[in-house]
Each structure stands twice: as C-alpha cells, then as structure tokens.
Amino acid sequence: MLEVRNLSVNYYVDEGTVNAVAGVTFNLKEGEILGILGESGSGKSTLGFALLRLVDRPGEIVSGEIILNGLDILLMPERELRRVRGAQIAMVFQDPFTALNPVLTIGEQIMEPIVLHQGVKRGEARAKAAEALRAVKIDPARIDDYPHQFSGGMRQRVVIAMALACRPKILIADEPTTALDVTIQAEILALLREIKNQFNLSIIYITHNFGIIRQLCDRVVVMHRGAIVEEGKTHLVFDQPKEPYTKKLVDCLRELG
Amino acid sequence: MIEISNLTKKYGELVAVNDVSLTIKQGETLGLVGESGSGKSTLARLILKLIEPDSGRIDYQGIGNIRRECQIVFQDPQNSLNPRIRVGEAIAEPIVIHRLLPKSAINDRVAALLEMVKLPIVYAKRFPHELSGGERQRVGIARALASEAKFLILDEPVSALDVFIQVEVLKLLKELKARLGLTYLFIAHDLSVIGYLSDRIAVMKEGRLIELGDKKAVLISPREEYTRKLLAASPRF
C-alpha cells in the first residue's frame, strides 16, 4: 500500500550533519496497523513527517523513494502532493491543544480540507463534517462549538474527525494520546481500531510506548538512531527479540514490570 | 512518619482533596496514582506545607523541620533547574539556605552528593543544558538530598525519560532509599511503572482516596471498579 525504500533525512545544524533517518526501508500493508517504535531522538517523528514530505529546514530528505499507488511521493510536483496530503494520507499529531485553531469552530476546521480537496459546496461539506463527527462519536449538534468547549480527549477526536474528513486510505498518528489521561487514551485507541475497520484504513502509529504497540499494532518497526533495527509481527518482536538493542529494551521493560 | 487525617482542600467550588486519611510509614514507598484532576498534586503540596488545608490535619513523626526534611523531585528536570545556575551551585543552594555546613565544607558535600547519584564530580561546573534528561534528573535528586531530607515526594520522576534511563533512575532511587533510610511518596498518572518501587499503592479519583492496599493486591486484584479500569487502560508491556 505504501512502500518506503532507503529513505534518508538529514538535519544540517551548527555542529554538523545529523542523520535523523538513515536509509529506512519498510512497507505498510493494506488494512494493518503498523507501529513505529523508538526512544526520543530515534528519528521516528522525522520519519512520519518525511512520509508526507513535511520536513522543513534545517532538515532535508536526501534520498529514497516513498511509493503510493505506483507513484513516488518524493518526485511529485507540489500540486499533486497537495492532493495526497489529507486526501490520501492524513496525519494526527500529539497535542490536540495546539492542532486546532482556537478562533474557528470545529465544524469550520473539519470542513476546510473537504472544501479544499473535494471542491464541494459549503452545505455538502458541512454534512460531511457532521458525518465525520458521528464517526468519532461526537454529537454532530456540537459542530458550531469552539475547541475550548471540549476536553482534551474530545479535542483529539475532533482532530481525528478532521483527518477522516476526506476519507484518506492511510492515517499517520504521531503519539496522539501522549497528552491524555490513560483512561481517555484507552478510549482513543479503541476508536482508532473502530474507524480503521469502518473506513478501511491502514494506520502508521508512531510512539515510544511499548504497551500501546502491544495492544494496538499488528506489526512493529523498531527504530534506533535513525535506522530500523528490527521489524516483524508485534508479539514475535516483543516475545522473541532477535537484535541486541531490542533484547535490551525488552529486558528493561520486564524489569519495570 | 506522616499521618494524614480527614484532609480537605477546596479551590472555590472545587474540592481538590476531599476528606483524605492516609498514613505514610517510615521506610516505605507509597505509590499514589491518579489521573489529571484527581488531587494527587494538591495532596503533595499539602504534605510539603506549600498550601494550607481547609480542614483536617497532617502529623509528622520524626520530622523536625518540614521545609528541610521533606523534599520533592519533579517530573521534568529541564524545568525544575535554573538554566543559568551551574549544577554544583544548584546542589549547594539548600545547604547554604538551611545553614547545614560551613562554607569551606560545601564543595566536598556537593562532590559527595554527585557521587551518590553517580554523576562525575566535574559536572558541578556544568550548566543544566549540557546534561542529558537522565543526568538532569540525577541532579534533581542530589539537590533534594542536599538538605538531608528524610522524606521525598517523587512526582512522576521518570515519565519524561526513555526506557533505559527510567530503569537507571528507578534503580538509583531504590538504592538511595536503602542506603539513606528514606521514605518515598511516588506519584504517577498510571499503573505502568509504579510497581517497581512501591510497597503499597493508593488510588485517588476526583479528590477522594478510593483504594489503598499492598502493591500486589492493588495490581493483581483491585477492589474498586475504577482501579480495574485504570489497570486495564495502563499500557503495560
């Protein structure tokens, strides 16, 4: 469904060049939830941004291919790329408090990508926005409310509704529950599973949290210093890790209980 | 060591801590779990006498000077250290404030504290930004110990750290507790790492203490529905 080959991202900083993503190759299969697991600084978030070519200076994608429907995202002209972002691949970020514009109603924010990508009239876009709200279990009657009228967990649902609005095939979620309480986190994870089935999504879930990967992901890619150190079915990687780095991590986690 | 009886703290209409009674025993680690708004941080501030309760009382046994002997280690070592003050000075500050040692003895004491938290002595000359997150947390611990504290509140001390570093810091805390005979209140927002250090676990929800028991009992067969929910939701490996 999405094939990433030999992707590298560098950051050019005063101290020199940092290989944030160093020749990463993996693929996302249709209908799966793929976990990208890494400690801070492993390159997992940079990888997520790179998949949509959202790496800004001082960072730069220096090599690789990201193949979606036979086309390389890295070679697309900007116009074509805009059709991919949001419409085919959508992204959900860590912090629902900053991902929403505080002066626009949630309805306006969910409608924005619909109008942009599908060129439909406002009335139709509003109906689609209401539908997206229903999908994330928010009462569509709240479509004209502002972000501050929602709790953190509800705001993350709004962000997910925005991501779903244009019916993407792929959802990239970068630590979407880190800012939330654990019981709310559990609800969001359940919701992701549900919308995955309902919308036929494939999901890339980026996190440092092993427990979430174990609960949620079919396969996992373990990153360390920009590279993939191990990849496989989640239970196999966690129960019988092959690489020394993964083994050490798993030992630590067993010790923590 | 600390006996809390019918403690209540209100902020306007909100009852942040609601009739909480609880004993922290000398030499134990009591884990305190609660989600945001549960009142766990307010309870910590009440114990440190940073705020006054509306009703109820806290009795301290074997603690003379609360300000000196009860200390806190914060979650984010990046924000709890002054970026313009060198590590050595930050650790020396409580010694100076509480007039614990003559000036001439302070450097040796700072060196001993750095050694205690397993940091090189040359780190005394460094600034917080020159240290990693785990190293900064060790400085936070050294600073808390500088005033010869007997009781430490550990407020999510490893939540901001990577797994390898989490294990190191938790091991260090365990070791220091045995070596110095400390008592800990370990605060966490979920049940995932709390078992490592805790002897008993207390669960708070909406200002109330809803469950308190032996670590194993709470983690394996919690009595309360909410604790079960929290346990199920805590992503454990």
TrEMBL record, chain A:
Question: Is this entry keyworded Cell cycle?
Answer: no
Which Gene Ontology terms cover its molecular function? ATP binding; ATP hydrolysis activity
Q: Which domain of life is it from?
A: Bacteria
User: In what residue span(s) does the ABC transporter domain sit?
Assistant: 4-250
Membrane topology per record: Peripheral membrane protein
The compartments listed are:
Cell membrane
Give the keywords, sorted.
ATP-binding, Cell inner membrane, Cell membrane, Membrane, Nucleotide-binding, Translocase, Transport
InterPro entries of this UniProt entry?
AAA+_ATPase (IPR003593), ABC_Ni/Peptide_Import (IPR050388), ABC_transporter-like_ATP-bd (IPR003439), ABC_transporter-like_CS (IPR017871), P-loop_NTPase (IPR027417), PhnK (IPR012700)
Q: Which PROSITE patterns match?
A: ABC_TRANSPORTER_1, ABC_TRANSPORTER_2
**SUPFAM superfamilies given in the database record:** P-loop containing nucleoside triphosphate hydrolases
A GO cellular component annotated for this chain's UniProt record is:
plasma membrane
The record, for PANTHER family, names: ATPASE AAA-TYPE CORE DOMAIN-CONTAINING PROTEIN, OLIGOPEPTIDE TRANSPORT ATP-BINDING PROTEIN APPD
Sequence similarity: Belongs to the ABC transporter superfamily.
User: Under what name is this protein listed?
Assistant: ABC transporter domain-containing protein
- Gene source species: candidate division WOR-1 bacterium RIFOXYC12_FULL_54_18
From TrEMBL, chain B:
Residue span, ABC transporter domain: 2-231
Q: Which GO terms describe its molecular function?
A: ATP binding; ATP hydrolysis activity
Kindly name one Pfam family recorded for this protein. ABC_tran
Q: Which UniProt keywords apply?
A: ATP-binding, Nucleotide-binding, Transport
Tell me which SUPFAM superfamilies the record gives: P-loop containing nucleoside triphosphate hydrolases (SSF52540)
Question: GO biological process annotations for this chain's record?
Answer: transmembrane transport
Q: Which Gene3D superfamilies match?
A: P-loop containing nucleotide triphosphate hydrolases
User: Which PANTHER family did the record assign?
Assistant: D,D-DIPEPTIDE TRANSPORT ATP-BINDING PROTEIN DDPF-RELATED, TRANSPORT ATP-BINDING PROTEIN
Family according to the record: Belongs to the ABC transporter superfamily.
- Put simply, this protein is called ABC transporter domain-containing protein
